[in-house]
Rhodanese (Rufibacter glacialis), 106 residues
Amino acid sequence: MLPEITPTQLKERLDRQEPLQLIDVREPQEWAICHLGGELIPLADLPKKAASLDKEKTTVLICHHGFRSAQALLFLQQRHGFTNLLNLKGGVHAWALEVDPAFPVY
C-alpha cells in the first residue's frame, strides 16, 4: 500500500508549518487553474528533476485525483531511493471537497 496523506491531514500539517516539500506533478495548464503551492514538476519531467529534490524532507506528491502522484511516488521510491514520500489521497479535487470549498475544481 502506498503511503498516503488525506487533504485534512495535509491541511493540519501545513497549518503547523511543518517543513514539507510539495511536488505537484500535473501539467502547467492544470497548475494555472489551481494549486496548493510547492513546486510544479509535470510527471514527464520528473526523471530529469528527481536529483534536485531533497530526499531528507517529507515530500507530498500532488495531482488532480491522486493517480499520477501515485506513479511519481513509486518512481521516486524505486528509482531514486526516496523513503519520506506521501501521496495526497484524492488529489486537489479531494482538497476542494474536504478542506476548501472555494478551491477551484476542474
